[in-house]
Amino acid sequence: MPRSTLFRQRLLTLFLIALLLLFSPLALRPESWEDWLGLPPLFLYLYGVWAGVIALAAWIAIRGRD
Amino acid sequence: MIPGALIIAVSFTYLGLLFAIAHWADRRADHGRSVIARPTIYALSLAVYCTAWTFYGSVGRAAENGIGFLPIYLGPTLIALLWGSLLLKMVRVGKAERITSIADFIASRYGKSQLLGGLVTVIAVVGVVPYIALQLKAIAWSFEILRHYPEVRMPEPTALPLWHDSAFIIALLLAAFTILFGTRQLDVSERHEGLVAAIAFESIVKLIAFLALGLFVTWGLLGLDGPELTDASRDPRLTERLAPLLAPSLSPVQDWFAISFLAALAVMLLPRQFQVAVVENSDERQIRRAIWLFPLYLFLINLFVIPIALAGLLTFPDGSVDADTFMLTLPIAFERPWLALLVFIGGLSAATGMVIVETIALSTMVSNDLVLPVLMRFWRRRQPPAELGRLLLAVRRAAIVLVLILGYLYYRLAGEAYALIGIGLISFVAVAQFAPAVIGGLYWRGGTRDGALAGLVAGFLVWVYTLLLPSFAKSGWLPPAFMESGPGGLDWLAPLALFGLTGWNEITHGLFWSLTANVGAFLLVSSWRAPNAIEAAQARLFVDALRYPRRASTALWRGRADIRELMTLAERFLGVARTRDAFVRYARSRDTDSPEALPADAETVGFAETLLSGAIGSASARLMVASVTQEEPLGLDEVLDILDEASQIRAYSHQLEQKSRALEAATAELRAANERLQELDRLKDDFMSSVTHELRTPLASIRAFSEILHDDPRIDLAQRRRFLGILVSETERLSRLVNQVLDLAKIESGHADWRNECLSLQEVIDQAVAVTGQLVKEREIQVRLDLPSEPALVWADRDRLVQVLENLIANAVKFAPPQTGCLEIGLVRLGTAWRVTVADNGPGIPEEALELIFEKFRQSLVGDAKPSGTGLGLPISRQIVEHLGGRIWAENRPEKGANLCFELPAHTPDTQD
């Protein structure tokens, strides 16, 4: 099952990227950023990464189907 | 004003709608058009993760500490990325083994242990019942708040009699509903299609309700058409309260990490999550969509948490309104009755969905892993009732009622106490105790039943000590001093600062210590002994679930079974029709006409056990099947032999290696044979050229003398006679040569005639010497005979033996120098053989030619001239001697000359046949 292995491998890579962005010192950086339109940058960052991870996961899952 | 009757009517209509959906889905499933087979429905049903605790509580957590609600959803998002392996494994094993619950899963993994299943059930019930209480409270509170519309009023702690307490009535209603949903048919199989469809619908409702309020509030925050909100900047106290939302921080980082990790585990291990994700899964391909759709759902339902929390804090700046109720109190404060009602229904969806699924999961565990094992002990002494299926269903229904009553009692006792409010994450930590056994069991073969038991017990005890008891103390049920210091005043045993670990959030602290104890005990005790046969078998099934996709868990059974008894057993739990149906289908899959004709082998017994597992769990099914069959225990080695494909592969590769070595050897032999053949071919060519050469010499002289005689008639008589004599001798030589060639061919092909008789070698030697006398005399060679007096008897063909000796003598004569030549013929007895030696005083034979001279036309190359003779004498001699059971060889004498020797077995008259 090489295709499903590839699928799992891509998702694992995405998992590690998400881990890096959300649970490493990188996630602490936005606390010191400046507000954007009066919105706290940390929320924007976390929601942004979250949405990005979901979008990539969806892309991997749907694209790998063909 | 929203009349209570309207709220109740709407609630009942909603629940009725749910039931209709469930009924419709069940009907479709019966017609083979399953609605839950759609991957979207599966992903939505997973959203049962979002309970009332999410629906109302996220806003509360956000208002309190800003970012704190997010890890509960980020953790699941991340772990979902690994579902392609993790959840797929669980689903595949779940299907193969017909797993009914997480307790069943763990019990099955560690050798189908009833004890382990029971322990997991106890932990799950203790850990999750307070969580159910929280849902009851949410429904009761939301009802109370909505009833006072348009007034925003927090419900008073009630001291109502039981029958006026809405929470109690809700509990009973939900129990009835769950019984209808979960145990509607007398069919105790583990899947509930209608339930899943209803849960998916509930997920949509709660999402719509949340998004509707979120959009409404956000519109207001942005100053668009919506609620008018206070400007925060005017009030410094308000600014302070808003700080967690406007200037959020991840610190303390360990909490951020720990709660994400905890939620990632809980989303797979909570009994209800396991139920929808593994047990109710109808097709493993659904997981692929859930990997992104479920996180997307979590994302959407959390999108407006911060705006709503912000709006709540701005609207109720004095802190009189509980932040957990902002979802409901905001639409009430802004007088949007329909929006408030929609939010109420959303909250109701979230709570009922959780309660129904959790209760079904728990009741299955209680009936299969707690009650049934006890009943089975009881049945050992007394005959069990015939209709066990009905009994099991009654047990399951009773368990549903019991779980909900327990939930209600906890709610009633805990009331407003911390023990209820803070229970969400405490529950999560309780189910996180399953993680080492489940995830470890899916990737590590070494775990044993004892290890899993030890890990669960250790983790659970630490959980009770560091989280449950402190929550009781905070509720005032235990003296607060309990939290300050450990038992006996030992500070390092303080429940909230175990081993002096201070400064951590209690959840992080409790999670760390309970999982440490759990994993530690699991590893330590598992390392105590190697897994036994059944543990090893199950380990392989779980760990290698993805490697051998179509392999059933059979062939691991040996013993005697009776098909009819197996069917009777299954009938008692599943009913006659369903059992018959299942067995007929199975019989067809094995190309058998009827179930009765099935062979009572391991595969059939495995099928029956798996069939029963779907109803009563793997551990009980194993014991039940064991009660009607005679199983011979399999040793660990046998199980491993059967199972370990790797060892089979190793054996194959070993065989291949052996074959390849054999092939190499054969190739070498073939190469040698080929070389030998080429050599023989060359010898044949040489032989041909030698033969023709040998023939040409006499032919040439015959022709020359014949021509002289023919051409010259005047030759005198004496001359003529001489010429004719030459002609005769050359012709003789020719015919000798031809005879020898024919002779050799005959002997070699085995067609020669042998007239064997008992001979005396002395006679043979005398005869040969006499025949060769002329030759010896011509060359003036001395012949000495050295023969013993006793007759040397051998069993041989006289003429041929004479021929051998003639050849040897002729050969010796040829090489012995003329005049001074000396021939010695010796005969000695050596053990059971007679040895004849013909020795000459010639030049000897070169060392490398000692063997070659016995090959055809290999005349010794000694001397300058080519020796005379046919070159066939010695080869023929060797053929003859070997045919007579002896051996012949040549050797150089130490002084000068060569010995040609042969040995023949001595013949005694009684060895004659």
From TrEMBL, chain A:
Keywords: Membrane, Transmembrane, Transmembrane helix. The chain crosses the membrane at residues 43-62. The keyword Transmembrane applies. It comes from the Bacteria. This is DUF3311 domain-containing protein.
TrEMBL record, chain B:
It catalyses: ATP + protein L-histidine = ADP + protein N-phospho-L-histidine. It is an enzyme of class 2 (transferase). Residues 649-690 form a coiled coil. One of its GO terms (molecular function) is phosphorelay sensor kinase activity. It holds the Pfam family HisKA. One of its GO terms (cellular component) is plasma membrane. Its EC number is 2.7.13.3. It is found in: Membrane. Belongs to the sodium:solute symporter (SSF) (TC 2.A.21) family. PANTHER family: HISTIDINE KINASE (PTHR43711:SF30), TWO-COMPONENT HISTIDINE KINASE (PTHR43711). This is histidine kinase. It comes from Allochromatium humboldtianum.
